[in-house]
Hints:
By secondary structure, this protein is mainly β. It has strands at 5-6, 12-18, 21-27, 36-39, 71-76, 81-83, 87-95, 99-102, 106-117, 124-128, 131-136, 141-145, 157-161, 165-169, 172-177, 181-185, 188-191, 195-200, 205-207, 210-213, 217-222, 227-229, 239-242, 246-251, 256-258, 261-273, 278-280, 282-294, 297-301, 312-315, 319-324, 330-334, 337-340, 344-348, 353-355, 359-361, 365-368, 371-373.
Amino acid sequence: MKNRTKIAAGLLATVLVLGGCTVTGVAASDSSTTPVISTSTSSDVTSSSSATTSPTATDTSIDVDWDSLPTTEVTLSSAGLTIIEAGTYVISGTSTGQVVVDTDGAVRIVLGGVTINSSEGAAIQVDNAELTVIELADGSTNTLSDASTRSDEEIDGAIYSADDLYLTGDGTLNLTANFADGIVGRDDLWVLSGTVNVTSVDDGIRGTDSLTIAGGTITVDATGDGLKSSNDTDLGAGQVSITGGTVTISTGDDAIKAEQKIWIAGGTVTISESVEGIEAPVIVIDDGDITLSASDDGINASTSEIITDGLSITINGGSLTVTMGAGDTDAIDSNGDLAINGGTIDITAQSPFDYDGTGSLTGGTVTVSGRQVTELTNQMMGGAGGQGGGPR
């Protein structure tokens, strides 16, 4: 039979029909050792996706012919699962172990109603892969949590990938991070679809090189930052892009943070609680519906370890509502330039604008504490000053 798999001793063979292809798979028995599943089909997979595209799990932009790779069905046991060959793995059941990926090929993990409460470390840990797709099966509810301690503290996510990671599907993922972060991609991380609920003792969702939110319904409740890209050593990395989806964030620190750039071009973003709502050296808002509350700065362009000049905030479109707490707070604060060229902006704050470089208001509708304004009044260092302009 095509795409026959080799299975570890003691596992039961089953048959799975997926996408019109019949393949042989396995159902894990309750064994004291972690099942190691390998396939006899080698893979030759490349990835050409970038952070500015919005691929889907089966889109050719990911450049994976999943039909050419084997599909395996696994019912989890307490031992967990180790994947060492490319292919699709359809997973169900309950485990206190881990799902670990270590292969040179592409892996698609379809969660079909899974509960993983790992007692060892991350619930899903990708040590090596060309790329990994985690797909939430239609109508499924999947509950994952990680251990509060682990032997390797570099593995700092409840879902952790050392390579490119895509999250897609039309199911639900409820994720609790007890050690540090919720979902971590050490390279590029895409959230394409699905209902994703993350509760974290530190950051919510972090893509080291880039984080792209292209769709889905995402809720983050984090003690640290909400959405984040943390690369502060490689120029051109450290970027967060939001092009679609519905995002709700409550954090004890920054809601959306990047070490180099944040770009919002669509979607609905609600930040109900944060210290700083949106923070990066360069921030560009082209579109989207954004509502945010913050206790320090609402939108802040500030230096990072790698970007120390050329700071800017540019708003070209979209709908933006900013509500600031009392005290030395700024709704829109750029330690460089500030340009508002379009969009609808509604600010409730004592200090609406603070910029160290040039400031311009050339388009859009800007309302400050109920009054429509036609010019920016710089309120440097949180000092007293007028709110600028008059009603149009």
